[in-house]
Amino acid sequence: MALVRILVDGYSLLHNWPELAPGAARHSEAGRDALVEILTHYQDAKSTPITVFFDGAGARRSKPKNESGQAVEVLFSSAGQTADDLIERAAHRFQEYGEVLVVTDDYAERNMVSGFGGSVASCDHFIRMIGDALTELQENLTNHNRKERNRFNRRSHA
How confident is the model at residue 69 (pLDDT cuts 50, 70, 90)? Predict the structure, then answer.
């Protein structure tokens, strides 16, 4: 079954990725913005929609600035619910459309999602997945640009 969406526990991922927003508190707007920016690049590289969930009735509710045409969806939990609650509900609802990947280090959450057939990834594993995808994208761009330069140079010297 094809991967239809990636559901990310935002603060869980931020806590495992301190180099993402150096000097910024993990629950800060700067940390959230840095995470959404890198997830947008990953989404652009892989073409898989991403929703990132943050705990926080008091958190900022506007979407962080995106430079991509298809923004990463950002959701905040309301008072009386957690990001985990939202992730479980979304994972269950998306299940009929295909495979969903949930990214979190919360073991109870991972067990719950895998229990009803969803895929799970630890934050460290997903960080490596992002690094690999962005490296591959950069290599593809470099190779494409080299080929285009060579093609242009052959034409101009002919």
Answer: very low
**What is the Cα–Cα distance from 121 to 112, expressed in whole angstroms?**
13
CATH number at residue 141: 3.40.50
pLDDT tens for residues 114-150? Answer: 988 889 999 999 999 999 999 998 888 888 888 888 8
Q: Using CA atoms, how far apart are residues 68 and 83, in angstroms rounded to an integer? A: 24
pLDDT class of 67 with cuts at 50, 70, 90: very low
Q: Tell me how long the chain is.
A: 158
Instruction: Give the chain's mean pLDDT.
Output: 86
Residue ranges in the chain assigned as alpha helix (H): 10-15, 29-46, 83-94, 107-115, 123-156
Q: Which DSSP category does 158 fall into?
A: -
Host domain of residue 142: 3-156
Number of domains in the chain: 1
DSSP codes, 51-94:
EEEE--SSS--SPPP--SSSPPEEEEPPTT--HHHHHHHHHHHH
Residue 158 is which amino acid?
Answer: A
